[in-house]
Amino acid sequence: MNERYSSTSGDLAPSALTQLLRRRWARILFILLIMITVFAVITALLLVMRFTADRPVEYADVGEHFKYGSTGGERESGLPYWVFQVMPRVCSKHMPVPGAGYESLGFIYEEGRDLPVGMSKRHNLGMDRTFINCAVCHVSTVRHTPEEKPLVVLGMPANTFNLFDFQKFLFECSADPAFRKDVIVPEIARAMEERGEHLGVLDRHLVYPVAIWLMRERLTMLGGRFGPLLNDTPWGPGRTDTFNPNKVLFNFPLDRIAARERNAAVDFPSIWLQKPRQGMQLHWDGNNVMSEERNKNAAFGTGTTPPTIDLKAIGRIEQWLLTAEPPKLKSEVVDQALAAKGQPIYAHYCAGCHGTNGREFSPPGGDTSRDCLKSEPNDAALYGPYVGRITRIEDVGTDRHRLDSFSYDLVVQLGTIYAGYPHRYCHYRKTFGYANAPLDGVWLRAPYLHNGSVPTLRDLLEPSASRPPTFYRGDDVYDTVRMGFVHTEASRYGRNFFLYDTKQPGNSNAGHEGAAYGTQLSDEEKDALVEYLKTF
């Protein structure tokens, strides 16, 4: 009889059954091992894909790209998207209006948008990250009455946005005891639930706790370095200190920087019609004639570095800005007969420095070569005598803090930012005054002078002793009579406006006055000149 079977039932012998079960279990374990391996590989691939992905949110329309597209700043400086969203809840006491959102800082929210204008989003390091882009300084709103729906204008100075207070909020919030994972993560979960989304286990227990810790450490470090600048004269909305933050990054000892270099805030400039500006000495003090270098340095202010800058995205904006035009002031608010009287006054007093009108200010020709040996504008006479050129500080007489802040030492250091890259800076120069800018869209560029110290164009035509010594900045309601934003209200729309004091360092409203600048014209002539400028 075969020993593999019992003598009575024909069943497998115990030893054979054991071997069969072992084989079956071996197959099962082998299959499980394969499944676990496949699962582990897939999980690893998904994690690799998640944490190595670098995807900005993209926009087909160039205007939307300008408002919300990335410059690459999120890669180095990006804030975790959901942490950014809940920070006003977690740190409400540090907002200008306690309990308010980012609108209280002058950010603009368009209907249906989850981020304000000037904030871009990129999936990077396993999460959505957000940071500022060019539009945060170069988009704002305007309305003719408080009840009117504001018009969003691309390319105009962001006169409502308070960058100083935004930076201060980030530093103060990150230093607050409430800025910790057991407070922020539940707020993120609640915010996501309000949108019908769910915070996953990995995000809840690993990704965001680590991100919050890293964000706190980084902002604490930056607050320690940049904090001394925030102890100087507050900038107020629509302004920034352009180059002193660069000195911090270059490790200049702030306590040894001359007082005349501090408190150098200037207005955000308008950025329309860049093509006719090519080759001009601009950037307030005319320190560069190459718009490409100026744009890359501006992108540096949005958190980019040479390895992280998104040149393709910035190039798209540069091309658009070559021909982008400002909107015209409503024709019904312009007295055409009075404007006609103002035209010859403008031609006599203003055209030599600012161009024939709001569109005709460029040379008919001229070399705009990128050759570093050609650092000065070519064919300068074709600009009109002085458009896009420098007026000496002794002649224009305006506040000199911004001029002095751009020092010879800083020029040298700027040349090192893109060292080893094809787009290394080679056109920055120290100058001796301020540049004469074209006046396209001048009605939207209030307050006036480089530091925004004069609220309206009509005030600019008065001697400095007769200009408002204090006024409020940050309103978007437009005064079509005096040409400037309403500056007498302390608050509106749940926002507190900024009281600008011309007696503070860097805030002087002196200069651009005297017979050559039209401040000795009669009131009738001044009114006619302002009316003509409304057509720009």
From TrEMBL:
GO terms for molecular function: cytochrome-c peroxidase activity; electron transfer activity; heme binding; metal ion binding. PROSITE patterns: CYTC. The chain crosses the membrane at residues 28-49. Gene3D superfamilies: Cytochrome c-like domain. Signal peptide: none annotated. Residues 337-536 form the Cytochrome c domain. InterPro entries: Cyt_c-like_dom, Cyt_c-like_dom_sf, Cytochrome_c_Peroxidase/MauG. Pfam families: RoxA-like_Cyt-c (PF21419). Keywords: Heme, Iron, Membrane, Metal-binding, Transmembrane, Transmembrane helix. The keyword S-adenosyl-L-methionine does not apply. It comes from the Bacteria. PANTHER family: BLR7738 PROTEIN (PTHR30600:SF9), CYTOCHROME C PEROXIDASE-RELATED (PTHR30600). This is Cytochrome c domain-containing protein. It comes from Povalibacter uvarum. The lineage of its organism: Bacteria, Pseudomonadati, Pseudomonadota, Gammaproteobacteria, Steroidobacterales.
